[in-house]
Amino acid sequence: MEPPLNARERIKLANKVIGTRIIRTPILKIPKDDIGIGYPVILKLEYLQHSGSFKARGALHSLMKLDVGVDGVLAASGGNHGIAVAWAAKELGHAANIFVPTITSDSKIKKLEKHGATIHQTGENYAEAFEASATFAASRKMTTVHAYDQVEVLEGAGTIALELDDQCPEVTTIVVACGGGGLSGGLASWWGTKKRLIVVETEGTGTYAAAKKLARPVDIDVSGIAADALGARRIGTQGWEALTSVAAESLLIRDDDVIDAQAVLRNVHGMEVEPAAALGVAALRSGNVRISERENVALVICGANST
């Protein structure tokens, strides 16, 4: 019997599965002081991905790996994951039912409609939308794609790290937003302890920070500007295990700093990105992250489905 594949091998396979259908997103090298950080940084532009966010990778990988039920595909989402699942389902010829909370922006609802999904807008937050989706699926033969706590989703997200290694092998330090841990956990799964991983959350969406403080995943009260994208009530088991295995750092930032970072990206580089995508820029502009002269820093600009 052959031994199980390790995380990097599984991510390599995921890249082969989805590689011809997703966008190999470009990087942008930002010179010193260009966006008020004080040292050069590299931006991985996942906001240019299909469906407007990195979520397309995990959604597509899941649907290409799993057997889809006769009643199609189901997802609960704050918006981005649902859009990605709707896009992937349309690409592969499946019906999609997407549950989103009432705080989901009109722009995200319109994108769900564009991809032909049946939309169920219910509950005040992601957790309540997820509960409603589980009830809906109970009497149907559907394939659920979890927004973050699913191994296929993490493996899809991990292909970002694989690409970045190819594009910029000199990178030593990565700054990334976290909601339920799908993206950050995917990056941790690829890099292990080879690179420094800094996880950034807003004060109202700090699932990793709360779990790190108590050494276990716990529920939080979700609020603030990034709640529709980073609206998980607690970090997922998959992401938590991946992040703790590499001792990923944790940083909380204010909503006002995120708004400022969005404006900088818009005014300096014409990037219209959602709050979650600006967290890394906000973190580095805040001065609360110590970066040595030996480090080469990359930020994942994760989504453009703004409110």
Number of strands: 10
The arrangement of helices and strands along the chain is: HEEHEHEHEHEHEHEHHEHHE
> What is the helix content?
40-55%
What percent of residues are in strands?
5-15%
Number of helices: 11
Shape field: globular
Distance between the termini: 50 Å
Low-pLDDT sequence parts: none
Integer-rounded radius of gyration: 18 Å
Can you tell me the CATH architecture of the largest domain? 3-Layer(aba) Sandwich
- Write down the domain tally: 2
Instruction: Briefly note the structural class of the backbone.
Output: alpha/beta
Question: For the report, how would you describe the main beta sheet?
Answer: 6 strands, mixed
Strand order of the largest sheet: 1-2-10-7-8-9
Average pLDDT works out at 93
CATH fold category name of the largest domain: Rossmann fold
Question: What is the top-level CATH class of the largest domain?
Answer: Alpha Beta
Describe the structure.
By secondary structure, the chain is of the alpha/beta class. It folds into 2 domains: 7-54 and 150-300, Rossmann fold (3-Layer(aba) Sandwich); 55-144, 3-Layer(aba) Sandwich (Rossmann fold). Helix content is 40%, strand content 14%. α3 (80-92) links the parallel β3 (73-76) and β4 (96-100). α1 (7-18) packs across α6 and α3 runs parallel beside α4. It starts with 6 loop residues before the first helix and ends in a 7-residue tail after the last strand.
